[in-house]
Design brief:
This protein is α/β, with parallel strands linked by helices. About 35% of the residues lie in helices and about 30% in strands.
């Protein structure tokens, strides 16, 4: 494996807090690996140790077989990084900033310029490429992404890369992420956006309270809830929440949307009951479908206790 994390624990002595607690993960060459978890789960702490910016209290981290706890400079050479906060490029145009990042990572002038051109075109940034002005948050995120991948490291760490990015360019960005992985880098995607992660990652780990509470491919994680169906009701405006039948488990109301879990064996009863609710004017519409990765994520996170530190 290109990146191997073995039993990594990070203890902050002040407050005796375990930001990471026995984390073991492996990421292969050409893989897009998702690191999912709520704010404060310990994701950013783990990334800091991978990048050689922090030292684990115990455990080991290797990149290409090199122990980066002992050789943090190697980690900084091997990794390229898009931080969650946008990189300041005051006084530079997007094109200049991307080219500068590529040259600092050792790319030749002509190669970097061509790659920068490809990225700007792929993400439809031509309108801003030569403007040294204050850019919107979404455009700055895209420029920051380009700076991380113009000369990608063996490991490319992307921390919430699509924050503030419009839907069209998000799709373009995920296509570029896939290209970076296909070219041989391992991509570590740090996010709490489960819906986007499901579309692009090859495998993932869910972190909560500093611990790995679930890992595998999206399909393998969802298979653990294969018998689970979700019943979603949209209540008529002004309608009160109906009394739920016993075969609908863990009902939750959010606005006019009422969602509950139904077993496969209870499916006919659930359809009949929801149909009756619609005829009575309580429900505007309803749907029943399989659990998503987001449902799996919520189950893992809400079933654990304790807090970590991002």
């Amino acid at each position: 494996m290109l990146l191997e994390i073995d039993d990594v624990t990070k203890l902050y002595k002040k407050g005796n807090i375990k930001a990471n607690d026995g984390i073991t993960l492996a990421v292969g060459e050409g893989e897009v690996f998702g690191l999912l978890g709520p704010n404060g789960a310990g994701k950013t702490t783990l990334v800091s140790q991978i990048l050689g910016l922090a030292v684990p209290t115990s455990g080991s981290i290797t990149i290409d077989g090199v122990d980066v706890v002992d050789r943090p400079a190697f980690a900084r050479e091997a990794c390229s990084y898009q931080p969650q906060s946008s990189v300041p490029i005051d006084g530079l145009t997007p094109m200049q900033a991307i080219e500068l990042a590529g040259r600092l990572r050792g790319g030749g002038r002509d190669v970097v310029r061509q790659r920068a051109r490809e990225l700007i075109d792929a993400l439809a940034l031509g309108e801003w490429e030569h403007k040294a002005i204050t850019l919107s948050g979404g455009v700055m995120r895209l420029v920051s992404f380009c700076m991380a991948v113009v000369v990608p490291g063996r490991i490319v760490v992307l921390d919430e890369p699509t924050n503030d990015v419009d839907p069209l360019r998000r799709k373009m960005l995920w296509q570029e992420v896939r290209k970076v992985a296909d070219a041989g880098s391992a991509v570590l995607l740090v996010t709490h956006n489960v819906l986007e992660a499901e579309r692009c990652v090859d495998s993932l780990a869910i972190i909560d309270g500093g611990r790995v509470v679930g890992k595998g491919t999206p399909a393998s994680l969802k298979s653990k809830t294969a018998d689970l169906l979700l019943l979603e009701l949209v209540l008529e405006p002004g309608s009160s929440e109906p009394k739920m039948p016993r075969f609908v488990r863990r009902p939750a109301l959010a606005g006019r949307r009422l969602i509950g879990e139904v077993s496969g064996a209870s499916l006919p009863k659930a359809i009949a009951w929801a149909t009756d609710m619609r005829k009575l004017g309580v429900v505007e519409e309803f749907s029943i479908g399989p659990a998503t990765l987001e449902d799996v994520y919520v189950r893992h996170v809400t079933s654990t206790n304790g807090a970590g530190h991002d």
